[in-house]
Amino acid sequence: MAEHLPNVITDDPLAISDLVDELMAAAKGEGIRPKEFHEEVDSVFEVIFEAMQHREGGLAEGDEAARDLLAGRLAQEAGVTTEQAQDLIRGFGIDWEPLLREAHFLKEQR
Q1: Which H or E element spans position 96?
Q2: Phi/psi at 36 (nearest 5 deg)?
Q3: Same domain, 48 and 88
Q4: First and final C-alpha spacing in the chain
Q5: What is the pTM of this model?
Q6: What is the percent of the chain where pLDDT is above 70?
Q7: Measured distance CA(68)–CA(86) in Å, rounded
Q8: Tally of domains in the chain
Q9: What is the C-alpha to C-alpha distance for residues 51 and 69, in angstroms, rounded to an integer?
Q10: Residue 74 and residue 88: Cα distance in Å, rounded?
Q11: Which of 2, 35, 94, 104 is the most buried (most CB within 10 A)?
Q12: Which of 102, 104, 103, 96 has the alpha carbon at shortest distance from 4?
């Protein structure tokens, strides 16, 4: 997500709302329905707000919901279990490309 955020840190609700609108429009273009977001997170606005506050790519301390969301996506994309995905996040951090690479490697080892 950090790659797609503007190069500013803001807590301006209008700016964040614009980002939510852009996200939803891009998701619609990819065939992702808003319902799918709301099945994963309570508030897309809050997720983007938190991302803006943690630009370095880290998750807020205790942000289990975001870690669970990332683990679920990794499990789905790479074909590993959610538990394996969570272990990879604990071991390798939250950078998507290394996580995906390690998950594919793990799947091949089975």
Answers
A1: helix 96-109
A2: -65, -35
A3: no
A4: 30
A5: 0.47
A6: 78
A7: 7
A8: 2
A9: 14
A10: 9
A11: 94
A12: 96
Token pair for residue 82? 């959610």
Task: Give the pLDDT band (50/70/90) at residue 19.
Answer: confident
Judge if 75 and 24 occupy the same domain.
Answer: no
The tens digit of pLDDT for each residue in 49-67 reads 777 766 555 555 456 777 7
Residues 2 and 52 in one domain: yes
Same domain, 3 and 29: yes
In this structure, what token pair is assigned to residue 36? 């799918």
Rounded Cα–Cα distance for residues 51 and 36 (Å) = 19
Range of the domain at 76: 61-110
**Does residue 104 share a domain with residue 88?**
yes
